[in-house]
Amino acid sequence: MKKYKLYFYGGAGAVTGANFLLEGEGIKILVDCGLHQGSTWSGQWNRQSFQYNPAEVDYLFVTHAHADHIGRIPKLVKDGFRGKIFSTHPTKDLAPVMFDDMTRLMARAARERNQDPMYDEKDVSLAMSLWESFSYHETLNLKPFQIMAMNAGHILGSAMYEFDSGAAKIVFTGDLGNSPSVLLPDTESVTSASYMVMESVYGNRNHEGKERRGEQLKSILQQIARENGTLIMPVFSLERTQVFLHEINSFVEKGEVGGVSVFLDSPLAIKITHVYKKYSSYFKEEVRHEIERDDIFDFPKLRLTTGVEDSAAIKRVKGAKVILAGSGMSDGGRVVEHLKNYLEDSAAVLLFTGYQAPGTTGRLLQDGVGRVEIQNRFYEVKMKRITLSGYSSHKDSEGLERFASEGADSLRALFLAMGEPSAAGHLAQKLRDNHGINAIVPELGYVADIEL
User: Fold this and answer.
1) Which of 122, 123, 183, 380 has the most neighbouring CB atoms within 10 Å?
2) How confident is the model at residue 174 (pLDDT cuts 50, 70, 90)?
3) Where is pLDDT greater, at 201 or 111?
4) What Rg value do the Cα atoms of the chain yield, rounded?
5) String of b and e for 63-83 (b: at least 16 CB within 10 Å)?
6) Are the C-beta atoms of residues 129 and 12 closer than 8 Å to each other?
């Protein structure tokens, strides 16, 4: 066995900003290079220089295409990285769509602050020129490792990476799906890893039963239809939007929900949905069968609003309506205008379906504040607020414990990353007490000595 160092440069002590470096035997491998999101200092953190020399990194492996896992890749390239980037095929196709959106937002923010953007289209183009893709269970031989991607079941193309030296294995899970997913196959089991870097977003919380989530959503939609109300759903453009389009399509096809206008008010989500359609072979079997007879992302009374004028016109539409709009944490995007229109409307409903980072508008609203500031104006919050955690695309505490315990016999150390300290700490104690796992909660900048 050889000695390696594992550095936690992001995704430690926080959910977002994943960035891990494995170094030893003359090789440097990064896993993920994401944006830190959610706090008032996240912009400053993202612009800082990397704590390693990007030009010395040989490879970057990308677990999936969410911004908190890919958002700083163009900066990595701008700062000198010229190695190879690897991901699954869907992740490679999703990445430029996500980068295009991020680049546009960064350029706008930079103009407002009279500073240069963190990166631009040239950096994105160069990053994509370095990018290669491969399939689940295909083996890459990059000495001294054989590397294999396994299905994480989190979003389209999400992967766990196993680095096998022949003497030992380390697995980076990325984010782990809340199996069974609406669209995707279940997360694969990992049973022979010596070391693992595992997410812990919901390490101290359990979701509602998955068997109830569809009935709960249907009930909310039926209530909106009966009362001619307005439902606002702040959604993540990648995965969550496609899940809800599929769910609503199913209700409409069965005649269980009708009379409701549904607006997908997100140009990014519309583009991503096209990628989902391209990779329908990655869906689970029953969904693939559905696609043979139906467009699962389209139904009567669904309207795709791309222009700003079309978005503004939604307010004037009479009758029951559902608005799916980004961003998922309500800190930007078109959902902000909809919140301004309806926060003080007691007949409107705000539905949370995903993680809300501390410091975001979404987290404040989810925590029940009675007054919130948006764009320098305070709003009294009168609209009803509901959280459906069953639609989370992350495993809950029980799911994470179950996943980790399957590999307990081989694990020398399990590093719990990508979670708030309280969540990671709670899960670590459960894994130690119930399964004898050496569970470690690294802080930002933590360095682990491992043998592979």
Assistant:
1) 183
2) very high
3) 201
4) 22
5) bbbbbbbbbbbbbbbbeebeb
6) no
| Helix (H), strand (E) at residue 231 | strand 230-234
Q: What is the pLDDT of residues 296-355, one digit of tens each?
A: 999 999 999 999 999 999 999 999 999 999 888 898 889 999 999 999 999 999 999 888
Residue whose structure tokens are 């130690």: 432
CB crowding 385-408: b at 16 or more within 10 Å, else e = eeebbbbbbbbbbebbbebbbebe
Q: Report how far residue 146's alpha carbon sits from residue 90's, in angstroms, rounded to the nearest whole number.
A: 22
How many degrees, rounded to 5, is the angle at CA 143 between CA 142 and CA 144? 125
Digit-coded pLDDT (tens) for 19-41: 999 999 999 999 999 999 876 55
d(CA 184, CA 100): 25
Mean pLDDT over 74-100 rounds to: 98
Rama region for 80: left / alpha / beta (φ>0; ψ in -120 to 50; rest): left
Contact 179, 89 (CB under 8 A): no
With pLDDT > 90 as the criterion, what percentage of the chain qualifies?
A: 90
Is the pLDDT assigned to residue 237 strictly greater than 70? yes
Hey, what domains does the chain have and what are their CATH numbers?
3-205+393-451 (3.60.15.10), 210-391 (3.40.50.10890)
Candidates 21, 48, 46; CA nearest to 32 is 21
Give yes or no for a contact between 170 and 389, defined as CB atoms under 8 angstroms apart.
no
